[in-house]
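Model the whole thing, not chain by chain.
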Amino acid sequence: MPTDRDTKLVTRHFGNEDAKTLAGYEKLGGYQALRKASQMAPADITNEVKASNLRGRGGAGFATGVKWSFVPAGSKQVHLVCNADESEPGTCKDRELMYWDPHLLIEGMAIAARALGAVHNFIYIRGEMMREYAVLQKAVDEAYQRGYLGKNILGTSQEVHITVHRGAGAYICGEETALLNSLEGLRGQPRLKPPFPAVKGLFGNPTIVNNVETLMNVPFIIDKGGPWFNGLGIGRSGGTRIVCVSGHVEKPGVFELPMGITFNQIINEVCGGVWKGRKVKAVIPGGVSMPPLDESELDVPCEFDALQTDERIKPVQYVPGKQFDLGGGKPLRTMAGSGGIVVMDDQTDIPRALWRILKFFAHESCGQCTPCREGTGWLEKVARRVGEGNGKPEDLELMGTIAHGIAGNSICALGDAAAWPTMGFLTKFRADFEAKVSQRAGRAA
Amino acid sequence: MSLEFSADAQKKIQALCERYQVSGSKKPVVMAALHLAQKEHGHLSDDALRLVARTLDLPYAHVYGVATFYTMYRRDPSGTSTIRMCTNISCMLRGGYEVLEAFEQKLGVKKGGTNAQKTITLVEEECIAACANAPCAVVGTNYYLDIKPGDVPKIVAELEANPHPESEVV
């Protein structure tokens, strides 16, 4: 059964200044899960996480325990890297999580490091998050002093180090292999996969990269058990779900909610409805990389599998009548992504909104793959003229075709991240785009 | 002109080199060293890049490549403090561009520019992960949330009274 809306795990210390200090965190029951884990065999920790159906909260929703089990047995040097490079537009949870509960992240990492046999571990935090960096570094220092990090943790033979590594401004470093390159002191350009990081990652060693929220859930799983955590969710998705609601709602915010709550419930019951008494027009379900939903698709649960497969969500087309194929005829509906929900009201200039999204991707493309480097620039250029009312009717098909040419043709997912919302907005809000381009046609005549 | 790191920075770099020993090279320290060089020398001039290269035994070309990839590294002199105003989708939907315009007017510069007193550089920033409190900005080293165009004079006055250079954080 899904949890009630009052069940809070990773956000339970929001607003509590005491939780930021080691003494305060311990008083609130902190580091008890690490104590328990230090008595468990590493494989048992991984099995507990597998049973929990915890799925990655960074965007892809991959099963965390399964990911951990990809590290080859007998590996000499393994690394755990926490991806704290949150920068997917619409997403603002990890920054708050680290700020309010830094020790929960450290505890989660120490437990995961035990499961993986990882000694040298890293938190890659966004350069712009200077305040959060200071909070986190202080917490790491405290944890070393108290013996939760370092050598012989809690009387075991285990050694765990955490180094906080600051980025310096690059969205692409949220992509796990770009992040690893950045950690190695290179330009943040993604690597070809395979080999996957779990086999050959940081410094050529097996490496697990997990999101902040993902790792912060681990202590709860160890404390109360995988089946308990799984029971909080629905289907193959355990636990709660953090959503970051922004845009045109009365009460935007970061909310920890039952997995499976619908978008209409989030907007109307949690966020006080669309602002100014208006109606909803479009909703981005999980960061701007994801195709949007229209007002008829909002009774779908905000959950990983539902957003990919629920037939109430229309498949994305790249030009009218031609469905985009994810492979083997599988349609693209949308994805739960990072939990960044952006609500747009019925007065929103949709073509201009899409232009702003594409301006972002054109700026952030690392330049490595031609389809993405050139294609995101073209998309931005065409979207700009359409958004400004200077587009030509054939521009809409041009945008769809460019997007189709980018999707699936770059080393990392940034290309898809620009192509998917382009195709999605054009599929679901065609009339808005047609009205814009006919403005120009009208003027010319 | 040959630049140097302060004794404090040298100590920090040394400690980091030990931290990253597992990598078998000093390369992973390059980002932190660039942050430190920017703190001590204001911006990353060719000489500052040479200093980082020399300190870490890396080719100049490598350090140049890294320094020019990330947007927080500055190759040119700029204001003491930076205002990074987000205009990405969530901020745009709630008036981010209007706030950016108010900053431009107040500072008398276009985005990307530095005011006449060289105290503040204004940057149009991509998403800074505070979308639920849009429009938002990183002002110096602090986040400012739920900004309205009318808040701009006060924000600028606060920053000028109490400068917060980003490079302080290393």
